[in-house]
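Problem 3 from the worked examples.
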Amino acid sequence: MGACSAILLIIITIFLPPLGVFLVAGCGMDLLLNIILTLLGYLPGYIHAFYLEWIYYERKEDIKAGIIPTRRAPLIFSDRVQGFTRIVVPVERVVEGERRSLEPEGQVGGYGATTTVPSAAPEYR
Protein backbone atom coordinates (compact mmCIF):
# COMPACT_ATOMS: atom_id res chain seq x y z
CA MET A 1 0.00 0.00 0.00
CA GLY A 2 1.29 3.36 -0.95
CA ALA A 3 0.61 6.81 0.44
CA CYS A 4 -2.57 7.25 -1.63
CA SER A 5 -4.10 4.03 -0.38
CA ALA A 6 -3.16 4.91 3.22
CA ILE A 7 -4.89 8.29 2.87
CA LEU A 8 -7.93 6.63 1.30
CA LEU A 9 -8.00 4.12 4.17
CA ILE A 10 -7.92 6.95 6.72
CA ILE A 11 -10.80 8.73 4.98
CA ILE A 12 -12.84 5.51 4.90
CA THR A 13 -12.08 4.91 8.59
CA ILE A 14 -13.23 8.43 9.51
CA PHE A 15 -16.66 7.79 8.00
CA LEU A 16 -17.08 4.14 8.97
CA PRO A 17 -14.47 2.64 11.33
CA PRO A 18 -15.54 -1.03 10.85
CA LEU A 19 -15.03 -0.74 7.08
CA GLY A 20 -11.46 0.48 7.62
CA VAL A 21 -10.82 -2.42 9.98
CA PHE A 22 -12.28 -4.85 7.45
CA LEU A 23 -9.99 -3.54 4.71
CA VAL A 24 -6.90 -4.01 6.90
CA ALA A 25 -7.69 -7.08 9.02
CA GLY A 26 -10.39 -8.86 7.04
CA CYS A 27 -13.41 -10.53 8.56
CA GLY A 28 -12.52 -11.77 12.01
CA MET A 29 -12.36 -10.97 15.69
CA ASP A 30 -10.92 -7.49 15.10
CA LEU A 31 -13.89 -6.56 12.93
CA LEU A 32 -16.38 -7.90 15.48
CA LEU A 33 -14.64 -5.99 18.28
CA ASN A 34 -14.66 -2.80 16.24
CA ILE A 35 -18.34 -3.13 15.38
CA ILE A 36 -19.18 -3.56 19.08
CA LEU A 37 -16.98 -0.59 20.04
CA THR A 38 -18.52 1.57 17.30
CA LEU A 39 -22.03 0.68 18.47
CA LEU A 40 -21.09 1.63 22.03
CA GLY A 41 -19.86 4.98 20.77
CA TYR A 42 -18.05 6.28 17.73
CA LEU A 43 -14.98 7.37 19.71
CA PRO A 44 -14.04 3.84 20.93
CA GLY A 45 -14.53 2.56 17.36
CA TYR A 46 -12.26 5.30 16.01
CA ILE A 47 -9.56 4.65 18.59
CA HIS A 48 -9.53 0.90 17.91
CA ALA A 49 -9.60 1.32 14.12
CA PHE A 50 -6.76 3.84 14.02
CA TYR A 51 -4.73 1.79 16.53
CA LEU A 52 -5.15 -1.28 14.35
CA GLU A 53 -4.11 0.61 11.23
CA TRP A 54 -1.13 2.16 13.01
CA ILE A 55 0.10 -1.28 14.13
CA TYR A 56 -0.44 -2.63 10.59
CA TYR A 57 1.66 0.07 8.94
CA GLU A 58 4.30 0.01 11.69
CA ARG A 59 4.76 -3.76 11.37
CA LYS A 60 4.80 -3.48 7.59
CA GLU A 61 7.64 -0.94 7.72
CA ASP A 62 9.54 -3.05 10.27
CA ILE A 63 9.32 -6.10 8.01
CA LYS A 64 10.60 -4.05 5.05
CA ALA A 65 13.53 -2.96 7.23
CA GLY A 66 14.27 -6.60 8.09
CA ILE A 67 12.93 -6.47 11.65
CA ILE A 68 10.69 -9.46 12.31
CA PRO A 69 8.07 -8.86 15.01
CA THR A 70 8.32 -11.38 17.84
CA ARG A 71 5.59 -10.13 20.18
CA ARG A 72 1.93 -9.73 19.46
CA ALA A 73 0.44 -6.26 19.77
CA PRO A 74 -2.20 -6.11 22.51
CA LEU A 75 -5.89 -6.18 21.50
CA ILE A 76 -5.11 -7.18 17.91
CA PHE A 77 -6.19 -10.66 16.87
CA SER A 78 -5.46 -10.70 13.14
CA ASP A 79 -2.18 -12.31 12.07
CA ARG A 80 -2.25 -10.15 8.96
CA VAL A 81 -2.08 -7.00 11.09
CA GLN A 82 0.47 -8.53 13.44
CA GLY A 83 2.75 -9.14 10.48
CA PHE A 84 3.14 -12.86 11.08
CA THR A 85 1.88 -13.92 7.66
CA ARG A 86 4.95 -12.45 5.98
CA ILE A 87 7.40 -14.79 7.71
CA VAL A 88 8.45 -17.52 5.28
CA VAL A 89 9.13 -20.82 6.99
CA PRO A 90 11.18 -23.35 5.02
CA VAL A 91 9.31 -26.61 4.52
CA GLU A 92 12.14 -28.62 3.02
CA ARG A 93 15.82 -29.12 3.51
CA VAL A 94 18.53 -31.09 1.78
CA VAL A 95 20.28 -33.61 3.99
CA GLU A 96 23.16 -35.68 2.60
CA GLY A 97 22.04 -35.05 -0.97
CA GLU A 98 18.53 -36.29 -0.24
CA ARG A 99 15.32 -34.27 -0.29
CA ARG A 100 13.42 -34.45 3.03
CA SER A 101 10.32 -32.64 4.12
CA LEU A 102 10.01 -30.87 7.48
CA GLU A 103 6.29 -31.60 7.49
CA PRO A 104 4.54 -34.70 8.89
CA GLU A 105 4.44 -37.79 6.72
CA GLY A 106 1.91 -37.67 3.90
CA GLN A 107 1.64 -33.87 3.65
CA VAL A 108 3.04 -31.89 0.77
CA GLY A 109 3.04 -28.12 0.73
CA GLY A 110 2.12 -25.87 3.58
CA TYR A 111 1.56 -22.34 4.57
CA GLY A 112 3.60 -20.13 2.30
CA ALA A 113 5.29 -23.15 0.76
CA THR A 114 5.95 -24.01 -2.82
CA THR A 115 6.71 -27.71 -2.50
CA THR A 116 6.62 -30.11 -5.41
CA VAL A 117 5.72 -33.78 -5.18
CA PRO A 118 8.91 -35.85 -5.53
CA SER A 119 7.37 -38.00 -8.30
CA ALA A 120 6.71 -34.83 -10.32
CA ALA A 121 10.32 -33.71 -9.92
CA PRO A 122 12.52 -36.81 -10.42
CA GLU A 123 15.72 -34.76 -10.68
CA TYR A 124 15.72 -34.32 -6.88
CA ARG A 125 15.81 -38.04 -6.11
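Problem 4, a separate protein:
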Amino acid sequence: MTLVARVTQKSKPRTRTGPISNSPPLPPRSRRFVVVPSAIPDLPEALTVPEVMRALRLSRSKVYDLFRSRQLESFTAGRARRVPVAAVRQYMQDRLEEAA
Protein backbone atom coordinates (compact mmCIF):
# COMPACT_ATOMS: atom_id res chain seq x y z
CA MET A 1 0.00 0.00 0.00
CA THR A 2 1.37 3.40 -0.97
CA LEU A 3 0.64 6.59 0.96
CA VAL A 4 0.01 9.70 -1.06
CA ALA A 5 0.37 13.12 0.53
CA ARG A 6 -1.45 16.08 -0.86
CA VAL A 7 0.76 19.10 -1.35
CA THR A 8 -0.88 22.49 -1.28
CA GLN A 9 0.59 25.70 -2.51
CA LYS A 10 0.82 28.69 -0.23
CA SER A 11 -1.60 31.37 -1.26
CA LYS A 12 -0.17 34.63 -2.45
CA PRO A 13 -0.55 37.61 -0.13
CA ARG A 14 -3.45 39.77 -1.15
CA THR A 15 -2.52 43.04 -2.71
CA ARG A 16 -4.59 46.14 -2.95
CA THR A 17 -6.14 46.72 -6.34
CA GLY A 18 -7.57 49.89 -7.73
CA PRO A 19 -6.58 53.50 -7.17
CA ILE A 20 -5.02 54.46 -3.88
CA SER A 21 -6.98 57.09 -2.02
CA ASN A 22 -5.22 60.19 -0.77
CA SER A 23 -7.92 60.86 1.82
CA PRO A 24 -6.90 60.79 5.48
CA PRO A 25 -7.63 57.60 7.40
CA LEU A 26 -10.84 57.39 9.40
CA PRO A 27 -10.60 58.07 13.12
CA PRO A 28 -11.00 55.11 15.47
CA ARG A 29 -14.54 53.76 15.60
CA SER A 30 -15.16 55.16 19.07
CA ARG A 31 -14.51 58.70 17.84
CA ARG A 32 -16.59 58.69 14.67
CA PHE A 33 -19.86 59.68 16.30
CA VAL A 34 -20.48 62.66 18.49
CA VAL A 35 -23.37 62.58 20.96
CA VAL A 36 -25.25 65.84 20.79
CA PRO A 37 -26.95 66.69 24.09
CA SER A 38 -29.65 68.70 22.31
CA ALA A 39 -30.82 65.73 20.23
CA ILE A 40 -34.13 65.28 22.10
CA PRO A 41 -35.82 68.46 20.73
CA ASP A 42 -35.50 66.99 17.21
CA LEU A 43 -37.37 63.83 18.18
CA PRO A 44 -41.07 63.26 17.49
CA GLU A 45 -43.58 63.91 20.27
CA ALA A 46 -43.96 60.19 21.09
CA LEU A 47 -41.10 57.68 21.20
CA THR A 48 -41.09 53.92 20.71
CA VAL A 49 -39.66 51.63 23.38
CA PRO A 50 -36.38 51.09 21.42
CA GLU A 51 -36.01 54.88 21.08
CA VAL A 52 -36.51 55.30 24.84
CA MET A 53 -33.96 52.54 25.44
CA ARG A 54 -31.40 54.41 23.33
CA ALA A 55 -32.25 57.82 24.82
CA LEU A 56 -31.91 56.61 28.42
CA ARG A 57 -29.25 53.95 27.76
CA LEU A 58 -31.39 51.32 29.51
CA SER A 59 -32.36 47.75 28.68
CA ARG A 60 -35.81 46.81 27.42
CA SER A 61 -36.71 45.09 30.69
CA LYS A 62 -35.68 48.14 32.74
CA VAL A 63 -37.83 50.42 30.55
CA TYR A 64 -40.83 48.11 31.05
CA ASP A 65 -40.09 48.04 34.81
CA LEU A 66 -40.30 51.86 34.76
CA PHE A 67 -43.70 51.61 33.04
CA ARG A 68 -44.99 49.11 35.62
CA SER A 69 -43.76 51.19 38.55
CA ARG A 70 -45.29 54.32 36.97
CA GLN A 71 -41.97 56.14 37.07
CA LEU A 72 -42.17 56.64 33.29
CA GLU A 73 -45.50 57.48 31.66
CA SER A 74 -46.57 55.72 28.49
CA PHE A 75 -49.66 54.98 26.44
CA THR A 76 -50.68 52.33 23.97
CA ALA A 77 -52.09 52.80 20.51
CA GLY A 78 -53.43 49.40 19.58
CA ARG A 79 -50.54 47.07 20.39
CA ALA A 80 -47.88 49.76 20.08
CA ARG A 81 -46.57 51.39 23.24
CA ARG A 82 -45.46 55.00 22.97
CA VAL A 83 -43.75 57.33 25.44
CA PRO A 84 -44.20 61.10 25.23
CA VAL A 85 -40.93 63.02 24.96
CA ALA A 86 -42.12 65.18 27.87
CA ALA A 87 -42.35 62.03 30.02
CA VAL A 88 -38.74 61.11 29.20
CA ARG A 89 -37.60 64.63 30.08
CA GLN A 90 -39.61 64.54 33.32
CA TYR A 91 -38.10 61.16 34.25
CA MET A 92 -34.58 62.51 33.70
CA GLN A 93 -35.37 65.65 35.70
CA ASP A 94 -36.76 63.56 38.59
CA ARG A 95 -33.61 61.39 38.62
CA LEU A 96 -31.40 64.51 38.68
CA GLU A 97 -33.36 65.96 41.59
CA GLU A 98 -33.09 62.67 43.51
CA ALA A 99 -29.33 62.57 42.95
CA ALA A 100 -28.82 66.12 44.21
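Solution to problem 4. The first helix runs from residue 49 to 56. The two ends are 85 Å apart (CA to CA).
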